[in-house]
Amino acid sequence: MRKTMLLLILAVAFFALPAQASELDAFAGKTGKIDIAGGTAHIPVMKEAAKRIMQKAPGLRITVAGGGSGVGVQKVGEGLVDIGNTGRALSEAEVAKYGLKSFAFAIDGVAAVVHPKNPVNALTHQQVQDIFAGKITNWKQVGGRDAAIHLYTRDEASGTREVFWGVMLKKGQIAPSANVVSSNGAMKSALSGDMDGIGYVSIGHIDQTIKAPDLDGVAPTQDNAKSGKYPVLRKLYMNTKGEPTGVVAAFISYIQGPEGAAITASDGYIPTK
Amino acid sequence: MADSRQQKTRGMGRGDLPGEGIVTALLFGASAVSVLCVAGILAFLAWFCLPLVTEGQSASVLSWTWRPASGQFGILPMAVGSLLLGSSALLLAWPLGLGLTLFAHGLGPAWPNFNPARPLMALVRLMTSVPTVVYGLASVFLLVPLVRSGFSGGSGFSWLAAALTLALLVLPTIVLVLDGQLRLVTPGLRLTAAALGLTRTQELVHLALPLCGRGLKTAAVLGFGRAVGDTLLPLMLSGNAAQVPGGPLDSLRTLTAHIALVVATDSQSAAYTSLFACGALLFGMSQAVNLGLRGLRPVQATLSAPRRLSLERLARALAWTSALAVPAGVCALLGYLLWRGLPTLGAALFFGDTPPLDALLHGAAVFDGLWPACLGTLYLVLVASCLAIPLGVASGIHLAEFATGRAGRLISSCVDLLAGVPSILMGLFGFGLILLLRHTLWPRANTCLLLSALCLALLVLPYLISATRTCLEALPRELRLTAASLGLTRWQTVSRVLLPAASRGVLGGIILAVGRAAEDTAVIMLTGVVVGAGTPGALTDKFEALPFTIYYLAAEHQSPQELDLAFGAALTLLCLTALLFALARSLRASLLNGKSRRWGNGTSAYQRTTA
C-alpha cells in the first residue's frame, strides 16, 4: 500500500514538474538565433530569461547586448538584431521609418539621487529643476551642508535621460558643466563616491550605495510609481521590425508571461501584467 | 636614414633570383593594404560628412554649443578637449618615458648585486599588458576620489584625472620605442665614448640621444596618437561635460568619448551625422601632428660646455624622478586592483553555477561566469593576430628595404595616418561597412567576431609596420654593405641578415600589437561584442569579450557584489594579457637563441675581417 502510494507520488511528481515549467516547453528542441541589443536597463531581465531558455533548448543561441535605447532602435531598424530594447516609447518617426512594433513588459520610475550621507532628504520639483539648470549651486540653498553641487547627467541617447528631462525638468535646460556618464551603473558609482553630487537613475538601480530624496513629499519607489503617486516614470519596451515570428515571438511572449514577469520583478521593475 | 635610402637605390638589381620578383610583389601588396584602408576610411568619412555640407549644417556643427535638444550640434568644445587632453598626457608621459629609458640605460645607480633597471623594464613591459579598461576601472575608484578630496573643487572627474591615467597608458609605448632605438645605437658608441673618456651620462646625452632623433619623434607620434585616440579613459574619467575646461579640475569631453556617447542615437539625426565630422576632425588632427613632427630637425650634438653640464644634470634628475614616480603610480593602481580583485577569484567567478569540469571538457554552457568572455577574447586575439602580423611585418620590410621614391613616401604617410585612426573610429568604420554591405552586396552581413578581429587587425597594423621598419632602418649600414659585397640579393639580405639582426625589435612590436588587440574595448563595442552570448561558436557569431565585460560591469553593476565581479574580471584580463606577453617573450627568447648562434658567427667573422 505504502509502495503504491510512493509510486503514485513519484508519478504525480514526474508529470507535475514538467507541467510547472510549461512556459519553457515552447522552446524545447528549438534551434536558431535571437540577437538582442539596446536599453541597458533591460539587460538583467534579458540575460536571466536567455539563461533559462538556453538551458532548456541548447540548440538555441540568444545574445544580449547593451548600447542604449538609441542603439536599440537603430540596430533593430537596420535588421542587425532581432529585438531592439528601448527605455522610452518610440517616436512616430521611428515607427514609420523602420516599421517597428513595440512590446512593453515593465514599468520603471526615474528618480533624482544623491550620496547616502547627504543630509538632504526631500526636494521639491522646482528645486530639482533649478539644481539641474545651474540656478541653485550650493547644497545649503536646499538645506544641506555648505558645499558646491556637482551635477551628473546622462548622454542624449539615454532613455532614462529623456524621461527625466521631459517629465522632471519639463524640458528645461541642463547646465552644460554637468558631468555626463554613459549608463545607470556609471551614474551610481559616480554618486556613491561623491558626497556633493546629484544625478538621476532608474529606480530599479537604487540600492544602499545611493539615496533618492523624496520629491514633493512622495518617496520615489516602484510602488508609488505604479500607483501613479510618483510622476516620473516610463515603460521598458522590446521592439521588433514588423510582426515577430518563430522563436523571437516565443521569446517576447515568455518575457510578457508570468515567468518573465517574475524575473522582471526580481530585477526591481514592475511587470506590466 | 639618408644612408639607407641611398643604399636602396644603389642596391642589387631586381630579379637576381626567380623568386625575388614574387617576394617583392607580395611585400608591396602588404603595404598596399594600408593605403587602401586609409583611402577607404577617408571615403567613408567624406560620404557621411557630405550631408553636413550639402544641407548647410556645417556652421551649426563648427560652433561652440552642443545642445541637441535645441538643434545645436557644435563639436568645437570636444575638439579642444581632445587636443588639451592628448597634449597634456603626452607632455607628462614623454619626459617620464625618456627619463625611464635613460635610467635603465645607465643613469640609474650601478649597485654590484642589484641592477634596478631590470625590474624597472619588467614593470614597463607589464604596463604594456595593462588594459585601458583596467586602468579606467582602478582610476575611477582610486584616483578620482583622491583628486576630489585633494583639490577642493569639482567632482574629481576631470581633465587632471584623465591626463594622469592617460600618461600611464602611453608611457610604455614611448619607453619601448626609445629603448629599442638606444639598444641599437649604443653598442657601436661604447668604444668610441670610452676612448674619448666620456662618462656614461655624457655618452647617452651627447652621443646616443642625438642619434635617436627618429625614435624620439616616433615615440611622440605614437604616444600622441594613442592618447588622443583613446576612448575608454576619457569616457570613464574626464567627466564628459560638453564644454571647454577652465582648468585642470574641470570636466571636459573628447571627440572619442563624444562619439561613444552619441553613437547610440538615431542614425538619421543630425547629431549622428555630426559624429562623422568629429571623426574627420580627429583624423585631421592626427595628420597635422604627423606632419608637424616630421618637420622637426633632430637635436644637434654640438652644445657649449656650460649648457652641456646642466643638460647632464637635467637628464639625471629626470631619470630619477621618472624611476620613482612611474612605479609608484602603477603600483598604487595595480595594488588597488589586486586588493579588490583577489578575494573574488575562484571557480564561481569563471563558471558561475556550472561545474567547471563540465564546462571545460564537455562544453557545458556557462551563464554567470567569465569563461565565455575569456574564450571570446582569446579567439579574437588569435584571429586578429593571424590577419595582422604577416601583413604588418611584410609591409614594414617593404617600407624599410624596398619602397623608394614617391610610392614609398605615400605608403609611409598612409601608415602614419592609419596609426592616428582612433579605435572608436575604426569601430565606426566596421559598423558602417556592414551597413553598406547589407544595403548592397550582402543582405545577411552582420556584426560578428570576424568583423571585430578585422577591425582590430587594422588597428594594430601600423604599430607592427612602424616597429619592423624602425628596427630595420636603425641597423648599421655596414651590414647591408657586407651582404651586398658577398653577392646576396636584396631579399636574401633581408631574410638572412637584417631580419635576424632586428628580430628583437620586431618581436617587441608584435608584443605591443597583441596586447593592444587583447585589451581594446572601443572597436569591439561597435562591431559585435555582447553581454551574454555563451562560448563563441563560429566566426560569424556575436561574442563576449573580457574588456567589454569589465566596462559593462563597472557601468551597469546592480549591486556592490557585481562591482566586485568587475574587479575580478579586470584581474583576470590582466593575467590573460600578462600571460600572452610572457608567451610572446619566451617565443622571442627561443628565436633569439636559434638566431644568435648563426648571427654570432657572422659577427665574429665580420669583426675578424675588420680587425
Give an overview of the whole structure.
The complex is a heterodimer of chains A (273) and B (611). Chain A is an alpha/beta fold and 273 residues long. Chain A has two domains: 33-106 and 235-271, D-Maltodextrin-Binding Protein, domain 2 (3-Layer(aba) Sandwich), CATH 3.40.190.10; 109-233, D-Maltodextrin-Binding Protein, domain 2. Helices cover 40% and strands 23% of the residues of chain A. Chain A contains eleven helices and eleven strands. In chain A, strands 1, 2, 3, 4, 6, 7, 8, 10 and 11 form a nine-stranded mixed beta sheet that branches. In chain A, helix 10 (246-256) crosses helix 11 (258-266). The termini of chain A are far apart. The model of chain A has no long low-confidence stretch (mean pLDDT 86). Chain B is mainly α and 611 residues long. Chain B has a domain at 86-248 and 299-345: MetI-like (MetI-like fold, Orthogonal Bundle). Chain B has 25 helices and two strands. Chain B has helices at 2-10, 18-54, 58-61, 76-107, 117-128, 132-141, 143-150, 159-195, 200-211, 213-229, 232-237, 255-262, 270-295, 305-341, 347-351, 356-362, 371-402, 405-419, 423-439, 449-473, 477-485, 490-519, 522-527, 546-556, 560-610; strands at 66-67, 72-73. In chain B, strands 1-2 form a two-stranded antiparallel ribbon. Chain B is globular and about 70 Å long. Chains A and B meet through helix 3, strand 2, helix 4, strand 7 and helix 8 of A and strand 1, helix 7, helix 12, helix 19 and helix 24 of B.
Within CATH, the superfamily of the largest domain in chain A carries the name Periplasmic binding protein-like II
Report the order of strands and helices of chain B: HHHEEHHHHHHHHHHHHHHHHHHHHHH
Number of strands of chain A: 11
Spans of chain B with pLDDT under 50 lasting ≥5 residues? 1-15, 299-306, 595-611
Strand content of chain A: 15-25%
Helix content of chain A: 25-40%
Using the 3D structure, state the CATH architecture of one domain in chain B. Orthogonal Bundle
* Domain unit count of chain A: 2
What percentage of the residues of chain B does DSSP assign to strands (E)?
Answer: under 5%
Alpha-beta classification of chain A: alpha/beta
Distance between the termini of chain B: 26 Å
End-to-end Cα distance of chain A:
45 Å
- CATH topology descriptor of one domain in chain B: MetI-like fold
Over all CA atoms, what is the radius of gyration of chain A? 22 Å
How would you characterize the largest beta sheet of chain A? 9 strands, mixed
Mean pLDDT of chain B equals: 81
